[in-house]
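Re: [help] complex structure
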Amino acid sequence: MDMSSHPLLSALDEPAPFPSQYPQLRRLDRSMVCQICKEPFTGPVTISCGHSFCSACIRSSLEVMKKCPSCNETVTEGSIRRNRALEEMVDAWEESRPTLIDLAQPPRKRPAPPETSHSKASLSSGVKRARLSPTGSANASGSASGSRSGSPTKSRRANDVVVEEIDENEDDVLELTENDEAPCPLCQATMPISSIPLHIEKGCPPPKAKPKSNGVLGKGNQKADWKKVFSGQGLGGKTKEVEMKRITKPNYALSSPADLRAILSEYSLPTTGDKPTLQSRLQEWIILFNSNLDTSHPSSLSALRAKLAESESSKRRDKEKGKDEVVNQLASKDGLAKYASVKKSEFERLRREIIERDKRRKDAEEGKGDGKENAIEVE
Amino acid sequence: MAAPLSSRRLMKELNDIQAKGTPEGIVLLSADSMEEWVFLISVLGEETIYRGETFALRLKFGPRYPIEVPEVTFLANEQYQPPLHPHVYSNGHICASILGNEWSPVLNAVAICITMQSMLASNKKKVRPEGNDRYVRTAPTNPKLTRWHYDDDTV
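Output below.
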């Protein structure tokens, strides 16, 4: 088929590759890509065999099979470790890539096409590429809690753990005193620096003055807490707020739908549906939530919830589409004929069975009303 | 609205195919949507028992691709017939571990085609699998619902 102008590719916002005379740059470009999603790493992690993937990718993959996708070695989710060096490398690479692409163009005056394709790529580049744009537009959308500081570098630092916070204090650029306010490295709530250690110690309760956007869910959580108390688990968590701590997977085989609903409501997620629905929703949420803890550019909880809802609805669409296809096929005359020819022997067999069954029943119920038989004849 | 993970990944694969082409003997016949692609597969070389034959391999991708394996069958219609092979049933279903427990999300559509091509290339006898008729009579439409048992690694 003609691949030069494939309609499906119009939606692809792939940035322009490096010119072919720079194989080493192409290789470097490839090395920044997760082998599962084939996109630049998001929250890269390393597993016990040494291979690295996006946190969300490998977590989803391990959900299906407990093997490394690259080398087949048996691995468990417990061996996942955040790879900060790789994350820094990918960030730096994404930042310098446009410059390098420019530098890689031949020095002589180039005709317009490659130039426009590049500028188009950097303008419309996908989710991942966009987040590093210096305008910080992607960054702003990620900080729905409204407590993040403005500059991309600073907010990235602020999300890192306490150890790196000390680094920042040593920086001459930012001279902070005890009374200055700073975002908590874990939950991003702004508060005086001196109170941050105690705040973390307490498991990041929200600051009293500023109720967070998800403060409304107090009631739902209370309900969940009571459910926990009644089921003999105790309260477990120290606070009612969503803890930015890895979720431990429940044992789905032993959990009742109510158990799953309790966990879901803890993170203010929909609690509708039967057990398989609840389970797949929770599984997906745990992947989203836990992998969000493996990155220096975490999304807000509401963004994660939106992502979950989006993937759930796309799955539903997919299911219904398959159904529609079959129905549509049967609606057309050709499709019906085709279906009939494929299933002819099966139809025949079923028809014979029904006729025989009818006959037996007729023999047995001789003399009774005829209305029933009409209902059975489905030929 | 962001495209689902599967579509983004498939677009990249399509882009790759467009840029670099497919390996010899493998041709992308149709990719009208991000759900279903059809490749034409022929076996190269002089000593193959499938000389001159072309088969159509259909890949159906779910929303969880590449975490989950696509649904892969040889087309069985007026135009294309599935190859006579001890691991390929007459309804086009394929018994191959790469389509089951050995699937890995780092693989892609072209990798599946290459595996099928080499599976055909290494075959020496044109026979249907044992119990073909019984299987075809009762098989589900989706081969992923069949519980496969992978025992023969000679072809």
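DSSP finds 16 helices and five strands in chain A.
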